Amino acid sequence: MSDDTRDTAAVDVGAVDSSVVAASDIEVDHAQLNESIARFAGPSGDYYAAAFRRIHNARRGLPNTFNLFAALLGPLWAASRAVWGMFWGFLLLEMIAWVQIGRGWWGNPGASFFERADKQRERAGNFLERAESARAAGDDPARFEKLAENLTNAADKNHVQGLAANAEAFEILLFGLLMLLAFKLMQGFYANIAYENQYSRWRIDPVRVESGRKTRNIALGAALVLMIAPLTIYDFTVASPLAALEIFPEKEVSALFVAGPNETLFSVIAGWLEARIDVAAVAGAGAFDGITAGVRSILRAISLALIDTPWPVVMAVIFVTAWRAAGPRVAIFTAASLVYIALLGYWEIAMETVALVGAAVAICVTAGIPLGIWFGKSKRAYHAAEPILDLMQTLPAFVYLIPIIAFFGTGNPPGILATIIFGMPPVIRLTALGIRGVPNDIKEAAVAFGASRYQLLRDVEVPLALPSIMTGVNQTILMCLSMVVIISLIGGGGLGKVILEALQYAAKGPGLLGGFAILFCAMVIDRIVQGAFRRDDQK
Amino acid sequence: MTETVVKASHVWKVFGARYREALDAIQREGIGKPEVLKRFACVVGVQDASFEVLRSEIFCIMGLSGSGKSTLVRHVNRLIEPTSGNIEVLGRDISQLGDAQLREVRANQIGMVFQHMALMPHRSVRDNVAYPLEIRGVPKSKRWAVSDHTLELVDLVGYEDRLPKELSGGMQQRVGIARALASDPQVLLMDEPFSALDPLIRMQIQDQFKKLAVKLQKTTLFITHDLDEAIRIGHRIAIMKDGLIVQVGTPEEIVMHPADDYVREFVKGISKLKLFKAHSIMRPLESYQGDGGNGVALSAAPRADENATLDELIDHALGSGRPVVITSAGRDVGVVSKTQLLRSIQGDKES
């Protein structure tokens, strides 16, 4: 076949004389390697060439190299060679050692004991004076003498403890020195290995991985050490350091910006935000009421179907749906869950929960899938939206419950809105992921056969992204269910209210039963949805 | 075979944000690919490509990976817009079409087959084949009928209701071919359709495709990186290197007269036995001096048609030990001596 002919042709052109050599006979080209290492290391390249050769020759275990400068200079060496991971790690370790040394050397571990002892002696002296004056007045001085004696004893005890602590200071000093020595040795042994590692990365990416010894890095390292080390050691070793170092002086700093006597930056900004929110709530009252009304009408429609329909009908429909969509096993599980919920008297309230989740999920999906498709197609839009999605998912629910109350009031519709904030990101993200993951050649084929953008979306992108989209819908459902408990805090109903009440009265039994009811709701919904959207070619 | 169906003239494609400046610099200063990449961060896909494809012709574009052949063929249905130059399909300038017109041309006149089949995994074989018709709004009954008929052409009866993943690679590619044929397009674009198949299956499907091509007489642009395949299938071959078309010609022309060392390197290992025809190596009758000086034996010499391959000529020559006289429409037109025969099998060396 022509593949063979072409391959030989390529070999003929490319390789001039390469014969096969057994691996054991291959010589290492040290000259070339040394040159490359020297180029990487810059100053004292020869030293590193030799050190790296020892590392390269090591079979296993620790290679026998020791970098004296790294040991002596510590983090400064790491900084000068831009081995920043090592710089931070050993800076921290050395700080610990230095703090111990500082405490042992000039710190006064017994100081607090001596201070206490002095105070106690002073008070003992006071009591003795009062005893004297009592005696002069003809009263019984015994009470004061007794107190003075107790205080003197306590002072002696403190004094002894202070002496002991001071004696311990030497041990602390010794321990600190040993630690420092150990860290220095570790750095000496580790430095070349870390540096060789950096060299390997530099060979892959010589532009971004730093090489050589740069003045800028030395200066940066020295500045960092100077900023961190003295203050920290001072703070740890001195018995009563400056208050400004212990607590951030926010009041003083605030005073630089804020004029009012009782105002801080915090109070000003918080007050401003509150005013903004009030203004916005008033200004947008119409819009917010509209949204609330819209959500309420969706909720009412779902509630009507679930609660106002006779329960046997609803149960039968759920059971048959489970059977048709996900098979007999899920149907049996569904039946058991329904029995649990009904027998424990949660039927109506569970249906309210399902209605709440249903409304939230319906809104999440109808808004989320189009958004996801958009984000999947436009990288720019996705990058713009990503921080917002992160925010929606990571912001604790309690934080946005407050503005939601301000804008939408309390009750079920605002609860649904809070649920949407939390539940929408997964369906958006996974839809975008699915759309981006559609193989290019299938899209290209559709376009080549004349598909319009809409046809491409309908026939190729959405069907191929469907598994991912359904995972997103599923995630969204579960997220919404987990929010149901929290929205009871702003007056949402359903099983969340049961849990909240149980929590308030520390009622363990009812809380657990309600929790299981939520769990079963979640699992039934999840299984039915999963089953319904599993496509034929995926079974 | 005279009407031009696809005509590309001076097509350039430069990829990258600064493609305009890059193209200007290339055309004015004549800078090479590496410099374009360095100065403008642009990649040159196709350089000044011009070719014509005639009706019912199979036109192969052959080149190694990265030579721009797939890029070039995507200009024909404007999956890629040319940076400059233009392409005519059936006399219409493709780049002048509006969106709707372009979609209509793609759906009606150009079928395409892809290297990795690109079938839709969620549709049955029949629905995959029917997709181009579905886009055109053909009713279901009609498109299913057409789909079944087309599947019959590629010998896939009985697999209509299967999903693509249930089929082997070769069968999937036949579905791909059926899909390209479903809308009965005049032009067929085939982008390395058989490259992903293993060699044995590839040979089979190549033969099958050749038969089909004879039957259907579609104007075809066939992309391949395999010169053997190009020679087996193509009426004419364009060889591309680094986005440049270095030679266009019939398989014989390419093998006999490679334009440069690059092409020569390619055709070195190609077997000439089935490729060369008698008329391309024969000498005039008058020039025949006879083997060893006696010029009397020609009347008794075996006759062969001018379109006989070298392989057949060898059979004739072996049978008689005499030179072979070449005939055209029953008339003697030339002669091939044993020396010429052997030399031409040998290839490049002048006989």
What key attributes describe this structure?
heterodimer; A: 539 residues; mainly alpha; MetI-like fold; 23 helices; flat; disordered N terminus; disordered C terminus; B: 351 residues; alpha/beta; Rossmann fold; CBS domain Like; 6-stranded mixed sheet; 4-stranded antiparallel sheet; 40% helix; 22% strand
Topology:
The complex is a heterodimer of chains A (539) and B (351).
Chain A: H1 2-14, H2 30-41, H3 45-57, H4 68-73, H5 75-80, H6 84-105, H7 111-137, H8 142-204, H9 215-237, H10 243-246, H11 250-257, H12 265-283, H13 285-308, H14 311-326, H15 328-343, H16 347-377, H17 379-394, H18 397-408, H19 412-436, H20 440-448, H21 453-487, H22 495-504, H23 508-533
Chain B: E1 4-15, H1 19-29, H2 33-40, E2 43-54, E3 58-62, H3 69-76, E4 84-89, E5 92-93, H4 99-108, E6 110-113, H5 125-136, H6 140-153, H7 169-182, E7 187-191, H8 199-216, E8 219-224, H9 227-233, E9 236-241, E10 244-249, H10 251-256, H11 261-267, H12 278-281, E11 303-305, H13 310-320, E12 324-328, E13 331-336, H14 338-346
Parallel strand pairs in B: 3-8, 3-9, 6-7, 7-8, 11-12
Antiparallel strand pairs in B: 1-2, 1-4, 4-5, 9-10, 12-13
